[in-house]
Amino acid sequence: xxxxxxxxxxxxxxxxxxxxxxxxxxxxxxxxVRLTVGRQKTEKAYLLLLLIISLIFYGSYxxxxxxxxxxxxxxxxxxxxxxxxNPSSRSKKLFLVLSLTANLGLLAFFKYTNFFMDTTIxxxxxxxxxxxxxxxxxxxxxxxxxxxxxxSMSYTIDIYRGLIKPERTYWRFLLFVCFFTHLIxxxxxxxxxxxxxxxxxxxxxxxxxxxxxxxxxxxxxFKMVVADNIGDYINTYWKFGSADNMAAVVPFxxxxxxxCQIFSDFLGxxxxxxxxxxxxxxxxxxxxxxPYIASSFREFWTRWHITLSTWIRDYLYIPLGGxxxxxxxxxATLMITMILAGxxxxxxxxxxxxxxxxxxxxxxERILRKNGLLNTRSILGQIFGxxxxxxxxxxxxxxxxxxxxxxAFRFLNNLFFxxxxxxxxxxxxxxxxxxxxxxxxxxxxxxxxxKKWLSVPGPIEKGILAALMLYGIFTLYGKTNAFLYFKF
Length: 488
What we know:
Elements: H1 21-36, H2 44-59, H3 66-85, H4 91-126, H5 145-160, H6 170-178, H7 191-194, H8 206-237, H9 249-279, H10 297-300, H11 306-317, H12 327-345, H13 349-370, H14 379-401, H15 405-417, H16 423-426, H17 430-433, H18 437-450, H19 459-475
Helix pairs in contact: 1-2, 2-6, 3-4, 3-5, 3-6, 4-5, 8-9, 8-19, 9-14, 9-15, 11-12, 12-13, 13-14, 14-15
């Protein structure tokens, strides 16, 4: 039985997004204001305009869902004020609980209600209890709820921990949460990373403008050319990977293509978010750093979706115990953390398995490292680790992309046990494999830079790359698909 997050899911292909003309006009208007009202420092009018535009941007999807955003931010704003003003009071814990309940309660209701009902029935049936299927609630998942709830929660938790002071006005806190460049799909920004930028000078520099444009162009290229073209093949042929007696070459190539699609899709969004924020006078944190060159699972999670992995580490893994206590407790904490990370991505058992695979991988790696059986310093150790890590990640993507566990297991059965590397099947994907090359060369260049075999790209090289990518955007763009992380 497939367990879904919501009974009705609205994709944002025909509404305002980073690759829509409506967003282009909205951003150009905002940038024009940046060049006039916001050209020097922290003009209140500029910040207020950013807030209004951010609310318009989010409200363009489902207007009444703005009330959810306003509700959680109001709760967190006043909870933060009370926690800071009563540092020795026991009631500060109650206000922290209030903040967590408001955020997690809404997230659980919209994202996991149907999942919990279906899972309860599934478990009951395994034990022989006669449960009838319950009707699904007709819920549309609020876009970006997984992201803005995490951002808002981190604010009150950091105040509770004494890491930051509360924001003095509600509208500035609201702008931190709903700043439209990162609102829908991240990066997940913390208060201490963004709010201080409201008060610093933001003079316009040519270097900043060029870097922002480069980030936007590269983001559009990886989304519109790489991810969208590969996405057409994935949407068309993914089901063939789990067909009866399908040759192994088909699920292998599909898995390879999907690994490049999801990376390019989210890298594209993150770079556009960083670039637009840069042009508007703000700097967002890095979200991806060549994850497919990682030679250990721990390294992979320092390179993939960095703002999420650090959030999970600081606000989930460490509070649950982290590395403190017995090794058995640490292993249990690690597994719980990664399973919950999987559930964060989607309310389905396939995401639970995806998280469990990464949890087990991190667990065994920790055991090997602790017993001196893992050597990632030697070249041979790094090469061996690279192939083990990347092969495991490819397997995990099968669960991430599959609609059901049954489909994922049939997919893997064809991949590992069916054989039949028939080149005629592989020829179906030859044109799609061309779009893997940008991902390959991006990681190869990143590896060479880290090894100091190459220098970081200079302005001339970036200009040439931007021109080539811009040409590709206008000539090789694929069928428009919503950003994959919109539904998370």
